[in-house]
Amino acid sequence: MGRLTSAVKELRIEVTSYNGNSGKYANLNSASPSPSIIINSPVPNNLPQHQENVRNAQSALNKNNERFQTMVNNQQNFYNMDPNDQHATQSQKVGRRAGARTVLMEFLIPITLRYVLEKPLGLIWASVISSIPIILSILYSTFIKKMFSPFALIMVLSIYIDLGFRMAFSDKRLQLLAGTVISGIVALTLFITILFDNKFIYYLTKPLATGGYHEKGLEFDAKWRIPAIKMIITNISIGMGVGFLLSAGIHAALVLTLPLNVIGIVDVAFNIGAAILISVWAKWYQNKKTKELIILDQIRNTGK
């Protein structure tokens, strides 16, 4: 029996478990929240090497513990709507600055240039000059901020699709159907990208949410991978796609039925109003569902 005992050297590592709620590993046989490795074996011949192996194993578990805790914190930060949270407040400021820059360079300046320059310079030159701020914004986003801005691309396409319709048709009603085509393209893009992991809304909102900052982009991507959030974004994509599809149909009906003396004003007002209304709905839905997730998370934590 003595020879058998000395021949068989049992190395026993206590089983650990991962607690998904706290984001930490815990020893099943220990009250300590930190992971631990307990070696029950005869003292090895090379004691320093043995101790080093134990320390390395303990360090590996600690790193895993920190990694999973970081994932939990990222999810909590996404749900965090506390206005006193400095990190969340800073992210909101970055988003507002990026949004203001986008609206100015990719919408307000181009629209103003288009209508101001059309009479003195003509339609073609007014279209080309009004697209320059948007193209500069695209180059800045692509090569400086290293991100893709689909809103800018939509605006450029809108300018040149409108130019194409106005040069191709002499009938004013047919010219104004360019707005219908643009809304249809946006709706089709939203529907098609539902099949992909990174949907059209991902590329549409990331520049506004991150301002092109690399660290903010990493946080945005981490939040995007949360399954509950991905489901919310999928629903928003479907809702916005339906909204733009309905907008295209209503716009076509208005263009073909309203009197010519009011159709120009109605065309501009309807296109801008529909886009704003759809965007407001998307934001409202996102906030509503996010608050529901916060409440459910609080209920689960209270129950435990």
Automatic annotation (TrEMBL):
<keyword id="KW-0472">Membrane</keyword>
<feature type="transmembrane region" description="Helical">
    <location>
        <begin position="123"/>
        <end position="144"/>
    </location>
</feature>
<feature type="transmembrane region" description="Helical">
    <location>
        <begin position="151"/>
        <end position="169"/>
    </location>
</feature>
<feature type="transmembrane region" description="Helical">
    <location>
        <begin position="175"/>
        <end position="196"/>
    </location>
</feature>
<feature type="transmembrane region" description="Helical">
    <location>
        <begin position="262"/>
        <end position="282"/>
    </location>
</feature>
<keyword id="KW-1133">Transmembrane helix</keyword>
<keyword id="KW-0812">Transmembrane</keyword>
<protein>
    <submittedName>
        <fullName>Uncharacterized protein</fullName>
    </submittedName>
</protein>
<feature type="transmembrane region" description="Helical">
    <location>
        <begin position="232"/>
        <end position="256"/>
    </location>
</feature>
